Amino acid sequence: TVRPDITNKKYITLEKLDSQECPKVETPQFSLSRHQVGADRLSNVYYMPNFLPSAYLYEVLLPWLQSIPSCPQPTLEDCSMNSSSALYWTTLRYSQRRVMMLQSPFPPLIEAVAQALFQSGVTWKDRNRCVENEGSTSSSNHPPNHVLINEYQPSMGILPHTDGPEYQDKTATVSLGGSDVILRFTKRLLTDEIGSSSLNQENRSLDKPILELVLGGNGSLVVFEKDAYTKHLHSIKDGIFTEKIATESTNSTETSCVSLNENGVTLIERGYRISLTFRRK
Predict the structure, then answer these.
(1) Number of folded domains in the chain?
(2) Which of 89, 143, 213, 266 is most buried per CB count within 10 Å?
């Protein structure tokens, strides 16, 4: 286990954290055209290798996240937190991965990242638009109001999944901790395709990645939305310490801790990583 021993630390309450001033984090501007990746294979996926500044990551955010103790409750639902809850990690039974689920209002250091996303142009529309007049609607941009934080030890991954209809069809994930990993997108079997005999062998190969994207572990940002969110699964391989990806792949030259072998393959040594996945309900 890479994280420090925090078993003797007291709970940190959100009430105490909310009294602190939210720091301002300067980040680059997000651009749909400039940061789109893999458009020839999958639309609506965007990547920035260095979104959060290193000083904020390693002097402020990461030490604070690692100082938060673990939760005594066994399930994620028991540890879903809001402004009246204690702040702690919980360990998922099926994966042994520590997670933390927060809803707005966020603790100041998380709110700083949410506001950085919003100010850079990563925004969500109002799901329930107000109808002012017949044939006319008003909508505005909003910051995220939900974040799922995952702590990954070097060999840990996550099975193919979607984030589901409870949230709007956009997700923004920031990675920190220094470790690169490969995020894989695969086709999702639609409801009317389940059990269909008309699917050919190619369509049945649902575990073959449509897009592989290297997520840098030093403050990178990946955003995906629309079909990439609703019609595709995303995953990180579990149970491995080393990954390989073709050097000419989408963004393999933008990784932070890789080495190249003589066969034109990028070798990624997995390490400790924390991801913050922001969404809006």
Answers:
(1) 1
(2) 213
Residues 6+ apart with CB under 8 A from 37: 45, 46, 47, 211, 213, 250, 251
Q: Supply 218's token pair.
A: 């030093």
Question: Considering the domain boundaries, does residue 102 fall inside one?
Answer: yes
pTM of the full structure: 0.81
On whether residue 31 sits in a domain, the answer given is yes
Q: By residue range, what is the domain housing residue 31?
A: 20-125+142-191+199-279
Look-up of token digits 């100041």:
108
Nearest-Å Rg of the Cα atoms of the chain is 19
If you write DSSP's letter for every residue of 180-210 in order, what string do you get?
-EEEEEEEPPPGGGTT-TT--HHHH-TTS-S
Q: What is the pLDDT of residues 180-216, one digit of tens each?
A: 999 999 998 765 555 554 554 445 455 688 898 999 9
Answer yes or no: are the C-beta atoms of 42 and 228 closer than 8 Å: yes
| CATH number of the CATH domain containing 79 | 2.60.120.590
Higher pLDDT, 261 or 278: 278
